[in-house]
């Protein structure tokens, strides 16, 4: 019975983090488009470094910490509400705010195909990592697995954006995913034992790129 439950949890996680899951993540670049436009990211090596920094010190790290906290408090209405408020406050620009709440709402709506009372505790405009963490916990998905899958999906989306922006090819993208496996595993492990005191970033160029994207004239992405 345990193995069947584990298989169901794995299949749900694979479905939720699949590029085909209807959250619209492909529409966003998290400021990468501006970094490419400014020539701060102009090749696969620089794309790799940009993503690696976000994993260890930027938005990906903060998302992982928020996801872990949501996973732990998914049965507590008030704690989830306050966590969602904090996650919204951490969005560094209007576009980043819209990105996280629209992705969160889309994830919540699509994941409701797997019924659970957790959806009654998640209001509208629940940021994406909070929604993923709470729903994953409700469906008995291990915390380490949920964080690792979330980070892998985020990295994959940035790689895909880099390919679409012309700074890397598909073989380069696969190589980046392979190289960052260790970083994803490390960050997921640290985030799984983190607390909200561990929130914080040191990626000023990435944060300001996300802000400046709002006034960029020619755009492929919504952020």
Topology overview:
Layout: H1 2-16, H2 32-37, H3 44-57, H4 59-72, H5 77-90, H6 94-111, H7 118-121, H8 128-138, H9 143-164, H10 170-179, H11 181-192, H12 204-212
Helix pairs in contact: 3-4, 3-9, 4-5, 4-8, 4-9, 4-11, 6-8, 8-9, 9-10, 9-11
Secondary-structure element order, N to C: HHHHHHHHHHHH
Q: Count structural domains.
A: 1
Q: What average pLDDT do the residues reach? A: 96
Indicate the CATH class.
Answer: Mainly Alpha
Shape: globular
**Might you state the CATH topology name?**
Urease accessory protein UreF
CATH superfamily membership, which one?
A: Urease accessory protein UreF
Derived from helix and strand composition plus strand pairing, the structural class reads mainly alpha
Q: State the low-pLDDT regions, or none.
A: none
| Continuous helix count | 12
- Intertermini distance: 44 Å
Reported for the largest beta sheet, the result is: none
Proportion of strand residues: under 5%
Q: Care to count the β-strands?
A: 0
The CATH architecture term is Orthogonal Bundle
């Amino acid at each position: 019975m345990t193995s069947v439950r584990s298989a169901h949890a794995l299949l749900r996680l694979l479905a939720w983090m699949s590029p085909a899951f209807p959250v619209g993540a492909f529409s966003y670049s998290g400021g990468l488009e501006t970094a490419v436009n400014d020539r701060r990211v102009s090749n696969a090596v620089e794309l790799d470094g940009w993503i690696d920094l976000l994993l260890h010190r930027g938005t990906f790290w903060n998302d992982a910490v928020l996801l872990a906290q949501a996973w732990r408090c998914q049965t507590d209405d008030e704690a989830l509400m306050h966590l969602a408020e904090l996650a919204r406050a951490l969005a560094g620009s209007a576009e980043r705010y819209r990105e996280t709440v629209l992705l969160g709402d889309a994830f919540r709506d699509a994941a409701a195909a797997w019924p659970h009372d957790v959806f009654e505790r998640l209001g509208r405009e629940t940021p994406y990592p909070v929604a993923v963490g709470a729903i994953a916990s409700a469906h008995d998905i291990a915390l380490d697995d949920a964080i690792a899958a979330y980070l892998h999906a985020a990295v994959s989306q940035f790689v895909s954006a880099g390919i679409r922006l012309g700074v890397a090819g598909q073989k380069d993208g696969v190589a980046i995913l392979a190289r960052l496996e260790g970083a994803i595993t490390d960050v997921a492990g640290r985030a799984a034992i983190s607390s909200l005191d561990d929130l914080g970033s040191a990626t000023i160029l990435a944060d300001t790129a996300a802000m400046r994207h709002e006034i960029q004239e020619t755009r492929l992405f919504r952020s």
